[in-house]
Structure formats: structure tokens, C-alpha cells
Amino acid sequence: MKVAIIHYWFVTWRGGEKVIEQLLRLYPEADVFTHVATPEIERTKLAGHRVQRTFVSRLPGAQKRYQKYLPLMPVALEQLDLTGYDLVISSESGPAKNVITHPDALHICYCHSPMRYVWDMYPLYLADAGWLTRLLMRPLMHYMRLTDSVSASRVDHFIANSKFIARRIDKCYRRQAEVIHPPVEVDDFEARAEKQDYYLLLGQLTAYKKADLVMDAFLRSGKRLVIIGEGEQLAAMRARATERVVVLGRQPFSALKEHLANAKALVFPGVEDFGIVPLEAMASGTPVIAYAKGGALETVIESDDPSAATGLFFHEQSIDAINEAVARFESLSEPISAEACRARAEQFAPDRFREELSSFIQAKLRREA
User: Fold this and answer.
1) What is the pLDDT of residue 121?
2) What is the rounded CA–CA span in Å between residue 9 and residue 92?
3) Which of 71, 101, 229, 267 is the most exposed place for a label (fewest CB within 10 A)?
4) CA–CA gap between residue 8 and residue 14 (Å, rounded)
5) Lowest mean pLDDT among 73-87, 141-155, 247-261
6) What is the C-alpha R_g of the chain?
């Protein structure tokens, strides 16, 4: 059986790429198709696989400004020759599923999210753009929505990374999706029961992730907060940092592990499609205080049973709601245990992901035979 794996681009190695890593373990003979890939990733993470890029990779400056060529990507995908492949797996949150397959091939799309800038987050991107960009965005995004809807019809079966995304797939494409949560590298983290006196905020420092809201809450409460991440808000947040609210910016993985293991709790204020960071915190034995929406509802457990609880939720993205949740966390009659957090994270380990994905694909192949 010849297998093709299509991923939108390989310029970082984060949650979407970790899915590809596990797919390549399931199908070590698979060929890989993408719009652009950095030489380092191709040399290391994709070593031993035939990697074919679309014509987008040959356009001026594509290695760094690949997203500027977004309108050309649906056409670029249609130029790929996949007629010799029996199984095609597309990995989607950017343009990947618009390929044309052989009529007898099985096309399965693992969807991290329908393209955010085309669908649910389009108004936000439009509001932040300059006047010329806004003028161009309106017809281009209309075109992208049309092509994205057409490309959904080319997929035989959808897999969503969360129930939250399965609902979004139904809303955007009117298609049902099986839910298989993505893999979490649990063994990369060490659970630690002894905690230090600070909370942790970890992730992209951008407006829609509400990092600045958490900073405002802790500046008001006076409790200690460590902020790790980079993004458009980094400079402004550093300018407001204090001795008790520390902004570290980007940190190496070794530092991330230490802070995740030592923090009293991770504060997670945004709406994520799935959210790997809360599970990395739990793998480190650290509870999570999360906004009650999105993927966090499928990973964090709020319970009166201390042997099951791994965190708690706040239901409004506001300073008062965050501070109230932190106060409630500190007043728990029995602290959330590191063991419960670790046990929850282990339910999302890579071997579970490979087993569920393999079972799903094999069942569909047998049905198509």
C-alpha cells in the first residue's frame, strides 16, 4: 500500500507536526507532500522520507513569507500527482486537503481546525489589518472559503482533534468527524509534587490568547506569576513587568520543563482547538486553571473528588473571574494531587494516539475494499 501524507508547511515543530511524527511511525514508507519545509526539518524530522513541495516553495521569499501565498495554495495542491497512492492522509489547519486523489484511493483528513483566518477568526484578522489589506482580504477570503468548502468534499473521512473542532467541522463543512485527540509527549516531562510559590502562563503572547488579561489579574492581586512566550504583546508586557509578575519571553525546553514542574498551577485563559500546554502541565504534576471553553473542557477535570481533579475552570475572560478562580484554587480543602494530573496526561500518550488512528484507518480501508 502506497501512502501519501500532506501537511500544510514544515517551518516549526509543534502540535500539528507532532501528529505527522506519529503518522510517519505508523507508515514509515510514506511520502510527504507540503508547500514549504525548512532544510533543517527536512534533514532531521523528515529524514528517510521522500519530500515533495508544491510550486509555492519556489516563489520569491516563500521560506519566510509563505503565508502571503495563501490564495495560490489550493491551486498548488491540485498540481500534485497522487494517482499512485492508495491512502492519502492530509493534516489540516492550513491548506492541505485540496489534493486530487485517485478514485479508488482513501483520503482521510486529520483536522486540527478549519482555517481560522478564513472562518471563525476572519473578523479579528480583518479588524487588525490596514486599510489596503482589508480591501484585498474581503474578496480573497471569500475565494478561500469557496475553495475550502470544495476541498472538504474531496475528503472521504474527517478526524477532528477534539469535540470542539468536530463541531466546527460540522459548522463549516457540514461533515461529521471522528474525534481522536492528538499525542502528548508525556515522557518528556517529570511530575513533581513539591511546588514553588508562583503561577505560570505559557504560550503565544497575542491578543486572542488573552495573555495580557492574566497579567492584569495578577498585577491586581499581587500574587506571583511567571510568563513564558513570545508574540506581538511581548514588548508591552515586559514594560509592565514587576518583581512579582515576571516576563521571561522565549525560553529553551529545559527551562519550560522546570517551570511547568515547579509552578503551583498553569493559568490557561484562551480558547484553544485542543491545547497541548495544559496536558504538558498535567504531565509535570501541575494543575490547570483554565477558561471553560474549547479543548480544555476535554482535558482538564474539575471534580469534588480529589483523586480525579486536575484543575478548575473560570467561565468569563475577565480579571475578576481569573482572580476568583485562583482564590478558589488556593482554598481547596484538599490540594489537587500531582499523581492525578500525571495520570490524566498519560491518557493522551503517543501510543494511544497511534492505536486509535490505526484502528480507524484500518476499519475504513476494510470497508472500502
Assistant:
1) 67
2) 10
3) 71
4) 13
5) 141-155
6) 21
Any idea which of 23-32, 125-134, 213-222, 346-355 has the lowest mean pLDDT? 125-134
Query: β-strands 311-314, 225-228: how paired?
Result: unpaired
pLDDT tens for 42-69 read 999 999 999 999 999 999 999 888 988 9
CATH numbers and ranges of domains, the chain: 3-183+349-368 (3.40.50.2000), 186-346 (3.40.50.2000)
CA distance 252 to 38: 20
Q: What is the pLDDT of residues 82-121, one digit of tens each?
A: 999 999 999 998 889 999 999 999 999 999 999 877 777 6
Non-local (6+) Cβ contacts of 47 within 8 A are none
- Is the pLDDT at 126 greater than 90, yes or no? no
Taken in order 289, 122, 141, 71, the sign of the CA dihedral is negative
For 274, the grid coordinates are: 485542543
Residue 346: which residues within 8 A CB-CB, separation 6 or more?
186, 283
Instruction: With CA atoms as reference, report the closest residue to 314 among 333, 336, 297.
Output: 297
Exposed (0-12), middle (13-18) or buried (19+): which is 356, by Cβ within 10 Å? middle
Average pLDDT, the chain: 93
